[in-house]
C-alpha cells in the first residue's frame, strides 16, 4: 500500500503529528512538508492523507493550494484529512471552510490531533497573539496520540 502524507506546519506540531501518523501505517509511506517541498502526483498513491494546523479559522495556504490543484483527482481516491488545533469540536467545520464540503464529505476519515503552543519557537508577535487568544503564558503540549492511532486505523490494509 502506497500512502502519501502531505502537510504544512508553522511551528512543528503538525510535523510531529504527521510523523507519528506515518509510524502507525504500513507499506510505502511518503511524507511531504508542503512548506519546504513540492508534493508528488497524488494519483500515484493508493491513499493520500492531508493535514495542517488551524490559524485564525483557516488551514495553511499550502494545504489549500494542494487540495485545489488536485481536487478532481483527490475526489476519486481514498483520502483522509486532519488538523492540529485547540478547538477540536470545530475541526470538521474548519476543514469544510478551508478545503470545501465536497472534499471533507469524500474523506474516509477526518481527525483532530490536538495542539502545541511552543513559545520558544514563536516570534514575539505570534507569541503575544497566542497568549491573548489562548489566555496562557506558558507553552502547552497537547498532541493526542490516541486520536492519531484512531485516524490511522481507518487506513490500515485490513480495515473494512
Topology:
Elements: E1 2-7, H1 13-24, E2 28-33, E3 47-55, E4 58-59, H2 61-69, H3 71-74, E5 78-84, H4 91-99, H5 101-106, E6 109-112, E7 114-117, H6 124-134, E8 140-143, H7 145-153
Parallel strand pairs: 1-2, 1-3, 3-5, 5-6
Antiparallel strand pairs: 3-4, 7-8
Helix pairs in contact: 1-7
Concise description?
The protein is α/β, with parallel strands linked by helices and 160 residues long. The protein is 38% helix and 26% strand.
Tell me what the structure shows.
- One of its GO terms (biological process) is heme biosynthetic process.
- This is Menaquinone-dependent protoporphyrinogen oxidase.
- The chain is of the alpha/beta class.
- It has one domain: Flavodoxin domain (Rossmann fold).
- 38% of the residues lie in helices and 26% in strands.
- It contains seven helices and eight strands.
- Strands 1, 2, 3, 4, 5 and 6 form a six-stranded mixed β-sheet that branches. It has a two-stranded antiparallel ribbon with strand order 7-8.
- Helix 1 links the parallel strand 1 and strand 2.
- Helix 1 crosses helix 7.
- The longest helix has 12 residues.
- The two termini are 15 Å apart.
- The mean pLDDT is 86.
Amino acid at each position: 500500500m502506497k500512502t502519501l502524507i502531505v502537510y504544512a506546519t508553522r511551528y512543528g506540531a503538525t510535523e510531529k503529528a504527521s510523523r507519528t501518523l506515518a509510524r502507525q501505517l504500513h507499506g510505502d509511506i511518503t511524507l511531504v512538508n508542503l512548506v519546504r517541498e513540492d508534493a508528488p502526483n497524488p494519483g500515484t498513491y493508493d491513499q493520500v492523507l492531508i493535514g495542517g494546523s488551524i490559524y485564525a479559522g483557516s488551514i495553511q495556504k499550502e494545504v489549500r493550494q494542494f487540495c485545489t490543484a488536485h481536487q478532481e483527482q483527490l475526489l476519486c481516491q481514498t483520502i483522509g484529512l486532519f488538523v492540529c488545533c485547540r478547538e477540536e469540536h470545530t475541526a470538521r467545520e474548519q476543514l469544510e471552510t478551508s478545503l470545501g464540503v465536497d472534499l471533507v464529505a469524500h474523506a474516509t476519515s477526518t481527525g483532530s490531533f490536538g495542539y502545541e503552543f511552543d513559545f520558544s519557537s514563536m516570534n514575539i508577535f505570534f507569541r503575544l497573539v497566542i497568549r491573548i487568544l489562548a489566555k496562557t503564558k506558558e507553552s502547552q503540549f497537547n498532541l493526542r496520540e490516541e486520536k492519531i492511532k484512531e485516524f490511522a486505523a481507518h487506513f490500515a490494509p485490513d480495515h473494512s
